[in-house]
UniProtKB/TrEMBL annotation:
<keyword id="KW-0808">Transferase</keyword>
<dbReference type="InterPro" id="IPR030846">
    <property type="entry name" value="DnaG_bac"/>
</dbReference>
<dbReference type="Pfam" id="PF00772">
    <property type="entry name" value="DnaB"/>
</dbReference>
<keyword id="KW-0460">Magnesium</keyword>
<keyword id="KW-0238">DNA-binding</keyword>
<dbReference type="InterPro" id="IPR036185">
    <property type="entry name" value="DNA_heli_DnaB-like_N_sf"/>
</dbReference>
<keyword id="KW-0639">Primosome</keyword>
<protein>
    <recommendedName>
        <fullName>DNA primase</fullName>
        <ecNumber>2.7.7.101</ecNumber>
    </recommendedName>
</protein>
<dbReference type="Pfam" id="PF13155">
    <property type="entry name" value="Toprim_2"/>
</dbReference>
<comment type="function">
    <text>RNA polymerase that catalyzes the synthesis of short RNA molecules used as primers for DNA polymerase during DNA replication.</text>
</comment>
<dbReference type="GO" id="GO:0006269">
    <property type="term" value="P:DNA replication, synthesis of primer"/>
</dbReference>
<dbReference type="GO" id="GO:0000428">
    <property type="term" value="C:DNA-directed RNA polymerase complex"/>
</dbReference>
<keyword id="KW-0804">Transcription</keyword>
<feature type="domain" description="Toprim">
    <location>
        <begin position="268"/>
        <end position="349"/>
    </location>
</feature>
<dbReference type="InterPro" id="IPR006171">
    <property type="entry name" value="TOPRIM_dom"/>
</dbReference>
<dbReference type="InterPro" id="IPR034151">
    <property type="entry name" value="TOPRIM_DnaG_bac"/>
</dbReference>
<keyword id="KW-0863">Zinc-finger</keyword>
């Protein structure tokens, strides 16, 4: 295994990143002895169970059974693979990574950092245009009329694209951003005469930023009266197409700004509205945890994104029927994820923008707090207009629909949580009263429906290659063979022992898949004359499951080491003794296997007389040896 070209860079990134600082950006940590502790972001934590060890530069959650370093934390938090985590941390640390392949040189339309820089430049051009150009006067008036303040315009970097067909292309000529780069950002198109034209011309623009606060796309809205003699374009709202930087389902408008408050808040809740201006109005009115989906219905990717930052969501709907229908689809999604969902249905004809502008943020906040949870909302909409006691057919249908939603929560999840059991009982009791049906009967029906549902594959749509499943699959440690686990721990703590180990134990002697894979990597390292300590392993191995196993082996071994090593020389002695006995265990197994093979050959009488005698003699000798005779 050759040393990767980035090995050095990975090491520098790791050195430059403090795990305490990194984790603190997401979780409130407090000091506890030599460590820091906080609530784990990946399970419903009350304890806290999440520990950060600043000396070892690692984190662990013993409930999730997750262990790792700055790369693992970033991989899981940002839903990226190892390379993605390396890029994020390198950028934060100001370390330049070598790019793979010739296609991604800076200045190339495939080079993501160049696209990020271009988007930043574009955002600024359009923003300045809105602030200062004469052509934007009607737009400034329009925004002012609607009540959007200068402060909001600055905060959200609102912009304007003039009507000229080539405004942006003309400007980019004096920069290093070519039209091809702007095209890759989804900003300009080429017509059939071979000239570039602007996608967003004549629109007020709402830049969309990612969770790292980088502009990645634009949303545009028609401004009435701008188009002069031209027809107003169809479609009031217009989003960037998907690009290398932007996918609709992996981003939410305003999340970059909402995160500032959300990261510090105890109450991690997000409110989702429909439009850009709804978000701006809410923030302006002081309700800052508000975001909008980007021209697409809420889906599993959004939920995965939201779960990284919030544990409860309020979905705000206009009072129309289309909104109601969409909700029931969304609802089924949320029921299976453990995000708490509330549904706020606004009075007919009202949207969050008007509400915030006319009645203020407090009124909006109050409505959000009073919103019914999703199941209650479901019961309410399913039973609306149905006479539950007399319209038997309609009532049965409504009950079945409600139970189908409830059945989406897997039985295993309910069994594991007392709160969820209680909640289910309450809901069944409530349905029983409302429908006048025995609660036993409802429970039974719920179980029937639940059993008929196939388990959902939560990550089935993770199609982007940078996506790794949000839930890192973990390995059952108790299933590992003791001696295999011990040997690896010894080698991680004392790499000098590898010399002997490689000679005596081959990777094929390992039973457990992940341990075997790790030992194989150590073996490769050894033959390449590379160091095999824990740090170099963690810089080389990228598979999240293997990383978790290595980290956990190390954590366990290092804790034992710290506990027992009052006197380090005696510990080293212990370690050598332990090493000898582990090697002996491997050797014993080889002999025992051989023994078994011989016995089975004897039993099958597969040997001729002479061989039989020789085999018997050998078995006898082995047995004597084993008993020290
Ligand atoms: Zn956890």
């Amino acid at each position: 295994m050759p040393i990767g070209p980035d090995f050095d860079a990975k090491d520098r990134v790791k050195q430059a990143t403090s795990i305490v600082d990194l984790v603190s950006r997401t979780i409130n940590l407090r000091r506890q002895g030599p460590n820091y502790v906080g609530l784990c972001p990946w399970h419903d934590d009350k304890r806290p169970s999440f520990t950060v060890n600043p000396v070892r530069q690692r984190f662990s959650c013993f409930v999730c059974d997750l262990h790792g370093d700055v790369f693992d934390f970033t991989m899981k938090m940002e839903s990226v693979d190892f390379r993605g985590a390396l890029e994020i941390l390198a950028q934060a640390a100001g370390i330049v990574l070598k790019q793979h392949g010739p296609k991604t040189e800076p200045g190339n339309p495939d080079h993501k950092p160049t696209l990020f820089e271009a988007m930043k430049w574009v955002e600024e051009q359009y923003h300045q245009c809105l602030l200062h150009s004469n052509e934007a006067i009607p737009v400034r008036e329009y925004l002012q009329d609607r009540g959007i303040t200068q402060e909001s315009i600055d905060k959200f970097r609102v912009g304007f694209a003039p009507l000229a067909w080539s405004w942006l292309v003309d400007r980019c000529r004096s920069t290093r951003f070519t039209p091809k780069i702007l095209e890759a950002c989804g900003l300009i198109l080429m017509n059939n005469r071979g000239t570039w034209y602007e996608r967003f011309r004549g629109r007020v623009l709402f830049p969309i930023r990612d969770t790292q606060d980088r502009p990645i796309a634009l949303g545009g809205r028609v401004v009435p009266g701008i188009y002069g003699t031209e027809d107003e374009p169809k479609g009031k709202y217009y989003n960037s197409t998907e690009t290398r930087l932007f996918t609709k389902s992996d981003n939410l408008y305003g999340l970059n700004i909402a995160l500032e408050g959300l990261r510090k808040a105890d109450d991690k809740s997000l409110t989702i509205v429909e439009g850009y201006t709804d978000v701006i109005a809410a923030h302006q009115a002081g309700v800052t945890n508000v975001v909008a989906a980007l021209g697409t219905a809420l889906n599993e990717r959004h939920i995965r994104l939201i779960k990284r930052f919030a544990d409860s969501i309020t979905l705000v709907l206009d009072g129309d029927d289309a909104g109601q229908r969409r909700t029931s689809e969304v609802l089924d999604l949320f029921v299976t994820s453990d995000v708490d969902l509330r549904i706020l249905t606004l009075p007919e004809g009202m949207d969050p923008f008007d509400l915030c502008m006319k009645q203020g943020g407090e009124a909006f906040q109050k409505m959000i707090e009073g919103a019914p949870d999703a199941i209650s909302h479901r019961i309410r909409t399913e039973t609306k207009g149905v006479d539950l006691l007399n319209q038997t057919h309609a009532a049965t249908k409504a009950l079945n629909n409600i139970l189908k939603t409830l059945a989406g929560i897997p039985a295993s999840e309910i069994a594991a949580s007392a709160a969820k059991q209680l909640r289910q009982q309450q809901l069944i009791g409530r349905l029983s009263r409302q429908f006048q049906i025995d609660s036993e009967h409802i429970s039974r029906r719920l179980n029937e429906i639940r059993n008929s549902l196939r388990p959902r594959n939560y990550d089935a749509d993770a199609d982007s290659k940078n996506m790794v499943p949000a839930k890192i699959q973990t390995v059952d440690f108790s299933s590992f063979v003791g001696k295999e686990r011990e040997l690896l721990q010894l080698l991680i703590l004392q790499p000098a022992l590898l010399d002997t180990a490689v000679e005596k134990v081959s990777p094929d002697q390992f039973v457990a898949g992940p341990l075997k894979a790790i030992y194989q990597i150590m073996d490769d390292f050894f033959h390449d004359e590379r160091e095999v300590d824990h740090d170099s392993l963690m810089l080389e191995v990228q598979d999240p499951v293997l990383r978790n196993v290595i980290a956990r082996l190390y954590d366990e071994a290092a804790s034992k080491n710290e506990l027992e090593s009052g006197d380090s020389t005696s510990f080293a002695l212990d370690m050598n003794q332990q090493f000898d006995s582990v090697l002996a265990a491997f050797e014993d197994e080889v002999i025992a296997n051989d023994h078994r093979a011989k016995v089975s050959q004897l039993q099958q009488k597969a040997l001729d007389k002479e061989e039989e005698l020789a085999a018997l003699e050998e078995l006898l000798n082995q047995t004597k040896q084993r008993h020290g005779l």
